[in-house]
Structure prediction request, 255 residues.
Amino acid sequence: MSERTPFIVGNWKMYKTVLEAREALTLLRAAVRDINGVDCGVAPPFPVLDACAGVLAGSHIALVGQNLYPEDEGAFTGEVSAPMLKAVGANHVILGHSERRHLFGEDDALIARKVKAAMEHGLVPILCVGETLEQREADETVAVVTSQLSRGLAEVKGGAELSSLVVAYEPVWAIGTGLTATPGQAQKVHGLIRDFLGDFLGPAKAAHIRIQYGGSVKPGNAAELLAEPDIDGALVGGASLDPDSFAAIVEAAAG
Ligand code: PGA
Prediction:
């Protein structure tokens, strides 16, 4: 943990209009101003990114995209490209979120192209992996997470740029359900992800990659999760919508 600064990202999903986003970020900016030793970011919906960039200018809160399409431009109605995200001031992008995989049918091959496009344009991918409840009960967690990682990184295999990766372990059964993996359950998978990255990149590089936990993270459970050696931050959905509760999670990560 010592060699990795914790990284807390709020995933706003499909919440907040421009007005609501401005209000929330103005409060958040003030609330985290004096918290040191932790990186944080917010992933607002696309139509409010520009307004958010304005509020966040000069702050240390990163602007994060929720998704991208892996072409620079073209006839792809409803999609947003990596250069567009970069131009609005985003520096990270969430890819392969379970809602994209399960509600919108994204597969590992598409996610791998997205990871490549993000890296080519200097956006740090936050690659999400995680098993469903059925898969956990069938003892398939290790196989599912390992396969999502190796397939999701297939297009950048061996690339030196991989040190800029962030991985988010989000057990699908814990997202938006109020169920959280216990710190022990989460650490077990995080350790496995670190081992996978060690084989893939070499242990020295793997030691620098931040692995976030996501799934019903709240002010009340953040500290115990973040105390685990391979949990280097959190991807927070519901609790990130309220600036005070998100700031409390950032505070917990600062120790
Ligand atoms: P949650 O969402 O914190 O509301 O469970 C996490 C996520 O989807 O990233």
